[in-house]
Amino acid sequence: MTIATGRRARLLATLAVAAMTIGTAAPALAQQKPAVSQPPAQQVPPPSTAEGLASADLFHLRSAADPQIAPSGRQALFTVQYADRIGAPYTRIWTLDVASGATRPWGSAEGVEGGGPRFSPDGTRVVYRGDGGLVIANADGSGAHKLAPIDDTNHPLPRMGERYAWSPDGTRVAFVSATPSTEPEMEADPIVITRYWYRPARGFPDRFNDNKHLHLFVADVASGKVTQLTDGDYYEHSPDWAPDGRKLLFVSNHEADPDLTYNADIFTIDVATKAVQQITKTKGIEWAPTWSPDGRTIAYSGLKRKFTSSESNMEEPHAWTLDVASGTAKEVGLVIDSTQSRPTWSPDGKWLYFTVQARGSVGLYRLPWQGGTPERIGPPPAMRASVGTFAVAPSGEVIAAMATPGDLPELYAFRGSATPRPLTSLNAELLGRKKIAQVEAFTFKTFDDRDVEAFLTMPIGYDPKAKGRYPLIVVIHGGPHGQQSPAFAFKNQALAAKGYASLMVNYRGSTGYGQSFANLIARDQDGGEGRDVLAGLDAAIAKYPWIDADRLGVEGASYGGQLTDWLITQTTRFKAAIPWAGISNLVSHNYMSVYHDYLQQEYFGKPHEDGINDMLWGRSAIRFVDKVKTPIMLSHGDADLLVNPAEDEQYFTALHDVGVEAIMLRYPREGHGMRETQHIADFLDRSIAWYARHFAAVKP
User: Fold this and answer.
1) For 585-594, how does the pLDDT look when each residue is reduced to its tens digit (9 = 90+)?
2) What phi and psi, each to the nearest 5 degrees, are found at residue 632?
């Protein structure tokens, strides 16, 4: 009320001044950009002394990612993400001695801040992203100096591959950087918008697309001379050198209007002549191409459907190969019916390695490059782990970042069928004195007799004989094309420490269960998948009688927030709801989101076609707001451009119109998701308090 009243007063004052000055000359005022908000000045709390995890512990957990193995196979580099200061997390570079498993921060006791380290072909030097550009250093981190500045664009460019790559002879580094816009400045008075895609991919402090374009550059390592290879109004990215050093692969969208049609293809450019050749020209998209070691084949990730999105895709990506001589493409990953990460060549060129989502976990596989029978490298399914980034050594050993039910991603070594060997234990001190809640998987029959899988996180120290004692929170994943897993989830663990169970349901549309399962959500948002979640809740209550069916909460982020908004219009069984970045109005979302093609690929057409807008309105939570009885804590990043905060604003107003208790949280500087650790901690504490207050009125 105070904010609204203040804005209205300022508006009236402005109008009054304008009325008094009409017809008189006035000096021109400089256009001012919005004030930049800064993270608060506050202290990082010490780790909690509680037996389970609490919000203060967020600042003291670390995770490993992006392992890179030296050509000799004896050394590896990786990044460690820290959250030990106010603001967003950051990364430092660490080194690993492969033989002994010894690890240490690169360069000093604190390590070197930066990311993306990449070894030179002879293993003596490394380039990485840091200090405002591309930095080159010796393999031990010494002698670091900037090789070239790198600029970015805020234009949405999903599925980008590598940002830079060494030439095969180690004398040059190709990289991607943005060039200044050739279009008018957007921060002007008045603002003149002509581009269809005028919104940026990132939010705060940006309001509009900066209209910069990404291009390919090459830096000479010895002299530091930088040469621009491409130009124009396209976005080129994901460079990879041909083994002979003459050409670069890259990805770009050369549709007549790339803003209207997301269709990335693979190109090559001759580094000497700058001659460009288009390699693929399909209706789908291709990304992350890499040459085979012999230069005869290109491996990449691809989608085949006409309707693809720059955001979440219903079609599951697979690994592909393309014969350079004939131009023949082959979907080698078709043999595995699930979502696959981009393929990586083995050093000997015989295998393609990639990860595969499967029933809530992520395994590492390899496949003969010609196609054939896939081989699972690990981990054993019983580990219920999720492999992320990885690197393949000349010996065939793989080093990968992997999350487990008991920890955030750590580095592991994979060899043969043996259980992966842990290489790091970044959180051993903190987690070693904490109780970690058990996560159990179960499968149930949903409303149309399909099998759906769910994961239940137990309250810490629960008594299975205590009937109806423990509240339960349904935690819904986003996407909708994603999956939840038994791997470590901090919020679920924090809820468990407070005596709450949490339920995750991989509803129809989720990945990891095959393409036909993902297809079931087509043209049916807020439909069958919502019924799957409710069926999973019923199954959990029946299977675990210690759950208190009268103290239930529901939450989720993005699509999970959308489904939270929707479910409370369909049932009154939840005593509290907490959507993050939820979509309450599918029609308005389509026209306000930066990702204009998302609903098109979900409904096989633009919303104004074939009555789709009517379908969207019929499945919008705000359409049925009069049915809501559940107290709701709406939450949103104040700079979210994927799901506009107006989705919460209109739902908030509508909820108050019908007399439902509703509050709205807005986190400054945050976009679609939350980055700053103090915000994550604050949201966790407010969530637990919201549930506790509304559960307190219900007798266990």
Assistant:
1) 999 999 999 8
2) -135, 135
